[in-house]
């Protein structure tokens, strides 16, 4: 998010605008916590993970009264346009303000990559790079001790991170919410590998899977595999990696585009990247819609021998 805030600030100032940051997300908006931004404050932020403006979850903003209060605070501070960076919840809040007449543009900021309408969100690539470095490190113990590791990655309702990282770490199984896990098949994969000179395996589990990775680990153990099964939960380190080149560029492009969009009178939409090109997508076309996993990634995973579980009938 920091590279996006830097880009918004610089592009805004360059276009003759006054740019204010809101501290602490929607809560900060309700609490009137504004911070004037300038080139100096955002200097170097292209290299930093997270958001120096800080953020929070804000239940009050979900209520009508919270949204009306937010509009009042914005009016008092003479704000003409708002740029919101976040996932589904944040952009749903942005749409609520847009519907009440405010000029709002959204940027997709969730590592889960579950926002419909954009191929990638800000931070996804960095999170994936962090995950693959950590899983590569886990391999050393897995190989030396002939173990199976169950590694939990983020993804509340989406298996995107788990699926992509399974492919790019050469792991054997992805347990993701989009497919029904099949413990018998997983045990068979481990058994076959163990008896075929591959005595270590890694299973990536999306945290959103029913019961989580700990439950998975227990189930696999009950499946009587020949080796020790250990659990590693990667947790919030996944959100702390130094932004990759891809993310720095994506966030910079999206931030600049959001400023230009507001200036040209666009509102009520999210900046998206579709087939490598920047686009604006109406909030109404993208929110409340379920983003599926890329079909080619599922096919690739299956074709290179990754166990994904069974298709869930819809
Ligand atoms: O929504 C993005 C996400 O990274 C999820 O994958 C994860 O469940 C959640 O955020 C963690 O949020 P928090 O830090 O508030 O627990």
Task: Describe this structure as you would to a colleague.
- With 314 residues, the chain is α/β, with parallel strands linked by helices.
- The chain folds into 2 domains: 2-123 and 243-286, Rossmann fold, CATH 3.40.50; 127-239, Rossmann fold.
- It is built from 12 helices and 12 strands.
- Strands 3-4-10-11 form a 4-stranded mixed sheet, with helices on both faces.
- Strand 3 (81-86), helix 5 and strand 4 (103-108) form a beta-alpha-beta unit.
- The longest helix has 22 residues, at 124-145.
- The mean pLDDT is 96.
- Bound molecules: 6-O-phosphono-beta-D-fructofuranose (F6P).
- The site of 6-O-phosphono-beta-D-fructofuranose has 8 residues, from loops.
- Residues 87, 110-112, 154-156, 207 line the site of 6-O-phosphono-beta-D-fructofuranose.
Helical segment count: 12
Please give the domain count: 2
CATH topology of the largest domain: Rossmann fold
Widest sheet: strand order? 3-4-10-11
Q: What is the CATH architecture descriptor of the largest domain? A: 3-Layer(aba) Sandwich
CATH top level of the largest domain?
Answer: Alpha Beta
Structural class: alpha/beta
Compute the gyration radius: what is it?
A: 22 Å
List the uncertain runs: none
Q: How can the largest sheet be summarized? A: 4 strands, mixed
**Distance from first to last alpha carbon:** 35 Å
Give helix and strand order, one letter per element, not per position.
Answer: HEHEHHEHEHEHEEHEHEHEEHHE
Based on DSSP secondary structure assignment, what is the total number of beta strands?
12
What number is the mean pLDDT? 96
Shape: elongated
What binds here, in terms of ligands, is: 6-O-phosphono-beta-D-fructofuranose
Beta-strand percent range: 15-25%
Overall helicity: 40-55%
């Amino acid at each position: 998010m920091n590279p996006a805030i830097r880009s918004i600030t610089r592009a805004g100032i360059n276009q003759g605008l006054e740019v204010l940051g809101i501290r602490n997300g929607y809560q900060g908006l309700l609490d009137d916590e504004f911070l004037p931004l300038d080139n100096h404050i955002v200097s170097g932020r292209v290299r930093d993970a997270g958001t120096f403006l800080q953020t929070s979850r804000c239940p009050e903003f979900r209520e009508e009264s919270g949204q009306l209060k937010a509009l009042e605070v914005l009016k008092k501070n003479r704000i003409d346009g708002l740029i919101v960076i976040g996932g589904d919840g944040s952009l749903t809040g942005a749409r609520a303000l847009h519907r009440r007449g405010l000029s709002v543009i959204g940027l997709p900021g969730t590592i889960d990559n579950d926002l419909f309408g954009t191929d990638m969100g800000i931070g996804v690539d960095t999170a994936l790079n962090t995950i693959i470095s950590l899983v590569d490190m886990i391999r050393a113990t897995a190989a030396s001790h002939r173990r199976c590791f169950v590694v939990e990655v983020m993804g509340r309702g989406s298996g995107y991170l788990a699926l992509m990282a399974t492919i790019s770490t050469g792991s054997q199984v992805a347990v993701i919410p989009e497919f029904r896990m099949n413990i018998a098949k997983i045990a068979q994969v481990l058994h076959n590998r163990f008896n075929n000179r591959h005595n270590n395996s890694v299973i990536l589990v999306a945290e959103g899977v029913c019961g989580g990775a700990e439950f998975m680990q227990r189930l696999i153990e009950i499946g009587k595999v020949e080796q020790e099964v250990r659990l590693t939960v990667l947790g919030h380190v996944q959100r702390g990696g130094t932004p990759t080149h891809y993310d720095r560029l994506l966030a910079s492009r999206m931030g600049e585009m959001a400023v230009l969009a507001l200036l040209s009178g666009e509102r009520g939409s999210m900046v998206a990247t579709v087939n490598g090109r920047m686009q604006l997508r109406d909030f109404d076309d993208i929110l409340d819609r379920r983003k599926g996993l890329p079909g080619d990634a599922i096919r690739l995973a299956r074709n290179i021998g990754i166990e994904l579980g069974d298709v869930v009938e819809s």
